[in-house]
Design goal:
The chain has one domain: Rossmann fold, CATH 3.40.50.720. It is α/β, with parallel strands linked by helices. The protein contains eight helices and seven strands, in the order E-H-E-H-E-H-E-H-E-H-E-H-H-H-E. Helix 1 crosses helix 8, helix 3 packs parallel to helix 4 and helix 4 runs parallel beside helix 5.
């Protein structure tokens, strides 16, 4: 009897209701076993059930991405029980608005922990899994704030700019070891509850394709992963046609 084909594993850290969930579903459609994380497991259940109902394989994990022990345990568990992680996606946002006069040290630090430090912890562990195999893909979700800081978003901009720098360092170190590292700048509002509730004037542009569809972001992640290694992209930006830049 022929040996069963090894599972192809995609881990999405921060598989929320919009972008992260869309990425998870896209990789599931591509034949990958999806491992998805959020802080609490119950919020993942609708996504896991949707993927399974469509014929895909998915597993949900509760993990605080800022906690080194939890991150290490997450990767070790997946690698031991499910399979070798081929794709790692870091999609934690932490987009919290606050003027610098009102910002607190505690909240600033928390935003950095979520959007940058967590990226380091998870990427380091992913690299330790992938480097011995000489292959893998790491994809990081960036934002407008990765490139420029806006008024009221000092903490978010600082964290996202640092995550971008981390991705650049990883690409230069790990690319020669066969690991594709890419950073995606989503320069515009995304069709999420956050944009709907906090930026209603922007959300009103949805019917004009003025905000980004998470499914279209997910297609870009799939394309990045499937690129031949003689033509890897490290960074690309996505924005609606009407967005100024």
């Amino acid at each position: 009897m022929a040996a069963a084909a090894a599972r192809r594993i995609a881990l999405v850290v921060g598989a929320g209701d919009a972008t992260g969930g869309a990425i998870a579903k896209r990789f599931a459609r591509g034949g990958y076993t999806v491992c998805a994380t959020r802080r609490t497991l119950d919020k993942l259940q609708p996504l896991i059930e949707e993927i399974r109902a469509a014929g895909g394989e998915a597993h949900g994990f509760a993990c605080d991405a800022r906690n080194e022990d939890e991150v290490d345990a997450l990767f070790d568990d997946i690698e031991a029980r499910i399979g070798a992680i081929e794709v790692f996606v870091f999609n934690i946002g932490a987009n919290v608005r606050a003027g610098v006069l009102e910002e607190t040290a505690q909240k600033y630090f928390k935003i950095w922990e979520m959007a940058c430090f967590a990226g380091f912890l998870n990427a380091r562990k992913a690299a330790r899994c992938m480097a011995p195999r000489g292959q893998g893909t790491m994809l990081f979700t960036g934002a407008t704030a990765s490139l420029r800081g806006s008024a009221g978003f000092a903490a978010f901009a600082g964290a996202k700019a640092a995550l971008r720098a981390l991705a650049q360092s990883l690409a230069r170190e790990l690319g020669p070891r066969g690991i594709h590292v890419a950073h995606v700048v989503v320069d515009g509002g995304i069709d999420t509850a956050f944009i709907r509730d906090n930026f209603p004037e922007r959300y009103a542009l949805k019917e004009q394709d003025g905000i980004v569809n998470p499914d279209h972001i997910a297609e870009t992640y799939w394309m990045l992963h499937t690129q031949p290694r003689d033509a890897w992209t490290h960074e690309l930006d996505l924005r609606p046609w009407m967005e100024k830049f």
